[in-house]
Give the backbone structure.
Amino acid sequence: MPEQELDVLWEEFHSVVNMTSRELSDWLMTRSAGQDAEELPDQAGTANGRRVLEILGKRRTDLTDDDVRVMRKVVDTVASERGADMEPTAGQSNWRHRLMTLGHDPLKPVKS
């Protein structure tokens, strides 16, 4: 991917992922906690959620091709779910929770 395209994707990703690493980590652990047991912290949440968390901890220069693929998927998913209006919106809880698993809380403003 050309450097300029990567720069744009990096900015888009960090704009739509409006939860901090801590908030996302806590959310993934909360979502994974079952009635009888909790998953190990590094196994909590969905695979995509864990990948978003990993990417948040990286520098742009350390991104892999797979990281870029995940970032594009997150940006595209949030854009298709939210449309052009990224104003804080409550929506249905299952919709919000699905987006939060990708690091996007629809109740929070997007980062500019």
